[in-house]
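Memo to structure team: turn this sequence into structure tokens by end of day. - J.P.
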Amino acid sequence: MNIHAYASTTAGSAFEPFDYTLGDLAHDEVDIAVETCGLCHSDLSMKNNDWEITAYPFIGGHEVVGKVIGKGEHVSHLEIGQRVGLGWYSRSCGLCAPCLNGDQNLCVLAEGTIVNRHGGFADKVRAQALWCTPIPEALDPAAVGPLFCGGITAFNPIVQNGITALDRVAVVGIGGLGHLALQFLSAWGCKVTAISTSDSKLDEAKALGADHFLDARDPEALKSAAGKFKMILVTVNVPLDWDLYMTMLDRRGKLHIVGAVPSVTSTAFPLIEQQKCIGGSPLGSPGLVLQMLDFCARKEIAPVTQRYPMREINTAFDDLKAGKARYRLVLENG
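Reply from structure team:
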């Protein structure tokens, strides 16, 4: 099968047209004709080899939406022509302890869609069928792509930490992840506080479901929220005053990291005395992705997107790098 894609050939270089060929489908795989593909900050990090795991030529794209055009002989739950989504993971082993317990996103042999293989900045992409999730008809296929990375990354902590409608939760960073977290938590019934360095986002944050807004640049404002939150969800990738944020947690509260911050440090006694903890999570299992999509369909939750033709991929990356995204960028195949 011939695939027409866009590849970066060296660290930081622009994307250029790139064709490659795949052999026969494995028994558990599907081929997807890509309709849209979200652009995530992880794609930018991989393009620049920030994490030192990128293989070139690099074809990014792990927020794929498209229709199944081929399937392996053992794929029985998907049909040709069915619209599916594909996120960060493209394969898991099915045999390790996490997989057997429904935590395929923690698989010890998990394969990343854009790690040592080619992703969705293309007209077609291939993946293990388990990770290709049917999209409910109620969701807009042109906007749903970012749910398969940014969406599930923000949704997973709510479930994993047992957050209920009784809880007060804060979201740090109102960007690609944070704007979805606000919508999820508001629909969940929580009292939600948005924390951002951009006070210009106050009205947007409230429109997305925030009940309160705190300026992250104002230590006194943050101190006023001491002991308030069951969970603080950190969606940014920059260092914070971690001890200050720990004081904002209620007893048994959780500082949950989903942004790729370089490091986290904390004084131990607040953790011990109030049984607070620091944790993080990667995306979610295929089962949880299904639940998230159902929740989005029922609660009418959708990413806020800006759309570009796939051929304008370099313009989209420039806008992402310049911080112009409001809030997720999506590439469309015409």
